[in-house]
Amino acid sequence: MARTQGSHSDITGPRVREAALRLFARHGYAAVSMRRIAAEVGVQAGALYNYTPDKQTLLFSLLQGHMAELLDALDAAQQSGPALARLERFVHFHIGFHLNRPDAVFISYMELRNLEPAHFQVIEGLRRTYEDRLEDILRAGRAEGVFDMADTKIATLGLIAMLTGVTTWYRPGGRLSADEVAGVYWDMVRRAVAA
Amino acid sequence: MARTQGSHSDITGPRVREAALRLFARHGYAAVSMRRIAAEVGVQAGALYNYTPDKQTLLFSLLQGHMAELLDALDAAQQSGPALARLERFVHFHIGFHLNRPDAVFISYMELRNLEPAHFQVIEGLRRTYEDRLEDILRAGRAEGVFDMADTKIATLGLIAMLTGVTTWYRPGGRLSADEVAGVYWDMVRRAVAA
DNA sequence: GTCTATAGGAAGATAGAC
DNA sequence: GTCTATCTTCCTATAGAC
């Protein structure tokens, strides 16, 4: 593991981020030391500070990167058309995206409390922006008359919680493929909000 | 805060547990020191070891106590009758119980990864037992012909995730009472699994 | 860019006085 | 039952050599 002195690598930065993401997800931000991240990468602890000013900024950067990627990917998925079709696409998108990034999803929900207040505000804002995308779909469907919910805001939060929960139990190679799982969830989502 | 030497209290034990529960929920197990718990209680750090052999056992004990209470309370709620009525009771029970113990719920989901393997197995078993209670209701309803789900196991996990998510946004004194919130969720749950 | 070495502090847990 | 004091280990972050 230990690197010889003077060796270099253009990809140490990404490797630091990958190691930190995995370790934070597995053991928690506070429980993971900079030494341990460094050991995973194969450098000494001091070398990490070439890539982040401090541990807190590393966490923030990981969360911010994940949320930005999430929003970009959602926007890249087509979001026009009838609300029912938009909702189905959202369900498949959300499950597919989250199942492909279990570690990032995990720390985005678990490590919010370890962010400094200013950093927390930024991530919280991005999270709300994402929720608003789903809420827009539900409102559109209500206006179309195809959806009917007792409370649109609660429906938004409830559906996201249900869908995100898939990351707590899904394991690749299990009984169902990710797409089949999304289909099962879509069946429940559709009926939960159908008019 | 600081207690004078030689003072006593029969209730220090419960206060240690309450302080640990609140601090673990707020900042995370790994981020909270024994000194900080002690300061919250008003004793010195060494005094905590009259109530727990170590920090890890304190966490385990909190989680175990919470899960035992959850299962006892569920069993105390009547669970006979038609599946539809049982499911409605489950929804109201789950939301009511969880909204009354936000800190315990939080650490029961967040701090599992900080448990030693043997402790983790115990808590995980209790959690599955609780999930099985809901799965039984869904299976009964399917047998009765009142429920219809694409996948009963996934429905179980999906519904619990949706319901538990209420703790992430609900604040007492908000727009809706806990009971009104449960009603909104029940509306979605009912339709998600109705035949 | 990475190393070694270290400053400076905080952590979990224990010992013995009262 | 709680205190003070302390052991030992680990932590984040920095300095300066290569």
From TrEMBL, chains A, B:
<dbReference type="InterPro" id="IPR050109">
    <property type="entry name" value="HTH-type_TetR-like_transc_reg"/>
</dbReference>
<keyword id="KW-0804">Transcription</keyword>
<dbReference type="InterPro" id="IPR009057">
    <property type="entry name" value="Homeodomain-like_sf"/>
</dbReference>
<feature type="domain" description="HTH tetR-type">
    <location>
        <begin position="10"/>
        <end position="70"/>
    </location>
</feature>
<protein>
    <submittedName>
        <fullName>Transcriptional regulator, TetR family</fullName>
    </submittedName>
</protein>
<dbReference type="GO" id="GO:0003700">
    <property type="term" value="F:DNA-binding transcription factor activity"/>
</dbReference>
<keyword id="KW-0238">DNA-binding</keyword>
<dbReference type="InterPro" id="IPR041490">
    <property type="entry name" value="KstR2_TetR_C"/>
</dbReference>
<dbReference type="GO" id="GO:0000976">
    <property type="term" value="F:transcription cis-regulatory region binding"/>
</dbReference>
<dbReference type="InterPro" id="IPR001647">
    <property type="entry name" value="HTH_TetR"/>
</dbReference>
<feature type="DNA-binding region" description="H-T-H motif">
    <location>
        <begin position="33"/>
        <end position="52"/>
    </location>
</feature>
<dbReference type="Pfam" id="PF17932">
    <property type="entry name" value="TetR_C_24"/>
</dbReference>
<dbReference type="Pfam" id="PF00440">
    <property type="entry name" value="TetR_N"/>
</dbReference>
<dbReference type="InterPro" id="IPR036271">
    <property type="entry name" value="Tet_transcr_reg_TetR-rel_C_sf"/>
</dbReference>
<keyword id="KW-0805">Transcription regulation</keyword>
